[in-house]
């Protein structure tokens, strides 16, 4: 994909963690990193849209990804500027025009199950009919390699906990982009904005998240054009139904050499099955 236009962007950054003193179970005091959480109110052409509770890792990409995933901005060429100011906790997006149906879109508000209370606008389900994904295959050994590589990320989580991580990965095992945030919906929106800003074709990429696979997460993955979804957590019934509808290969509860394939089983080549001893050891840990 060719990058034809890039809007004027601030580079507003804020600390991701802060240090506090805590007491442990022995009554000993020690330093502990704490994940930051800050409000960011999004304005589109001077109109207040939503307030996002975010870590603030890449706020410009976050607001762009949010607007795109909500279909409030369809073309990057229409975005003139994105200005984030942490002093007033505001993100101002200026575009060439405001959608004609914005009042109707904003009136259809759904508070999602996302950590930190995600919000989606409009009829998201109706938009699924416009999405066509590429159903490419993947090997079990490639999934294991990706999980090993992804263990090197999640820096804020390792430091302070309390955040979710999401990543866009190649089938070769490269993590092309990774983001952590208070809510997984913010992390996926940030990655959507990153892909959009850099004109990255994600049709042959895999999406990873530490969070559960709800309908919101499956829809946003599909909107980015990805048909393989990998999670360290579980899935919801509606999330599964949408994945099946769109032909998404959904793998969940993926840790170590264990995973569950919820949909798209025919696209996974089982070329690296764990040994009987490994399965027995895994069962022993669950029983404990």
UniProtKB/TrEMBL annotation:
Positions of the catalytic residues: 115
Main location: cytoplasm
Pfam families for this protein: FdhD-NarQ
GO molecular function: sulfur carrier activity; sulfurtransferase activity
One cellular-component annotation, GO: cytoplasm
Intracellular or extracellular location(s): Cytoplasm
Gene Ontology biological-process annotations: Mo-molybdopterin cofactor biosynthetic process
Record's keyword terms, sorted: Cytoplasm, Molybdenum cofactor biosynthesis
Family: Belongs to the FdhD family.
HAMAP family in alphabetical order: FdhD
Function according to Swiss-Prot or TrEMBL: Required for formate dehydrogenase (FDH) activity. Acts as a sulfur carrier protein that transfers sulfur from IscS to the molybdenum cofactor prior to its insertion into FDH.
Name this polypeptide is given: Sulfur carrier protein FdhD
Species this chain originates from: Nitrincola nitratireducens
């Amino acid at each position: 994909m060719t990058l034809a236009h890039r809007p004027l962007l601030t580079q507003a950054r804020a600390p991701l963690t802060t240090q506090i003193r805590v007491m442990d179970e022995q009554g000993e005091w020690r330093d502990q990193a704490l994940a930051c959480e800050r409000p960011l109110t999004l304005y589109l052409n001077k109109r207040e849209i939503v307030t996002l509770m975010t870590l603030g890792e890449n706020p410009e990409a976050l607001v762009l990804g949010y607007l795109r995933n909500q279909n409030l901005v369809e073309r990057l060429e229409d975005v003139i500027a994105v200005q984030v100011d942490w002093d007033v906790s505001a993100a101002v997006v200026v575009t060439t025009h405001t959608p004609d149906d914005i009042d109707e879109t904003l009136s259809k508000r759904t508070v999602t199950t996302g950590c930190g209370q995600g919000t989606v606008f409009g009829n998201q389900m109706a938009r699924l009919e416009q999405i066509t994904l590429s159903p490419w295959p993947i090997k079990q050994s490639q999934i294991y390699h990706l999980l090993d590589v992804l263990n090197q990320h999640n820096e804020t989580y390792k430091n302070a906990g309390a955040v979710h991580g999401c990543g866009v990965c190649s089938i070769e095992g490269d993590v092309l982009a990774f983001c952590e945030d208070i809510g997984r919906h913010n992390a996926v929106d940030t990655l959507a904005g990153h892909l959009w800003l850099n004109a990255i074709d994600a049709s042959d990429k895999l999406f990873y998240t530490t969070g559960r696979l709800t309908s919101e997460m499956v829809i946003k993955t599909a909107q980015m054009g990805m048909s393989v979804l990998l999670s360290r957590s579980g899935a919801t019934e509606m999330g599964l139904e949408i994945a099946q509808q769109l032909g998404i290969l959904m793998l969940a509860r993926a840790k170590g050499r264990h995973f569950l394939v919820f949909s798209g089983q025919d696209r996974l080549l089982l070329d690296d099955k764990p040994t009987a001893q490994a399965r027995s050891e895994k069962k022993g840990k669950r029983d404990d």
